[in-house]
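Name: GNAT family N-acetyltransferase
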Amino acid sequence: MKHNKTYYRIDYNTKKGTMIIEGPVQSEVLKNLDFHEGLVAFRLPKEQKKALVEIASFEEGRIIIARDAETVIGYATFLYPDPLESWSEGNMDNLLELGAVEVAAPYRGLSIGKNLLKVAMMDDAMEDYIIISTEYYWHWDLKGTGLNIWEYRKMMEKMMKAGGLEWCATDDPEICSHPANCLMVRIGKRVDQQSVEQFDRLRFRHHFLF
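Structure predicted for GNAT family N-acetyltransferase:
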């Protein structure tokens, strides 16, 4: 399928000043921006910048960023599921994974994560995709936020709902390995029934184990 991308931007007023939330941004734009030193959830800021620049270059890749002036302080990534993940087994060209949402610690509590997802869904092309997010408690910053597992889960669900993602049942062993883990899904308005059924088979491909 053709991966159409339309750029959107909002100027978001917070108690820390006006933040710019925009995307999908191109690789060339990301290369010229600084990354906040607090973006360390997955890798060091320089390595994270390199990874996002690469994702932005993918035909299907989408990077939405929040920036304070010329410094990226948050981001959300959309791309095909990792080939090593079971979600890629269907080879669906209209299945994207919300791979990561991260906001630097000094900017948390400003609803930036929610607004990253809202801007991402402003693009009408997102109605052509099934969007998934796999939430695993071992990826959550429980220490940094001071939240317990269930408080963090509630926060994550609330943020994902801002982008139209809802809890969805699955028998995926990794998600089922802990009750706090969950699958969040958004099915675009133009996704055909055949794709929905194919996705349902991915969600429950392990049912024979139970």
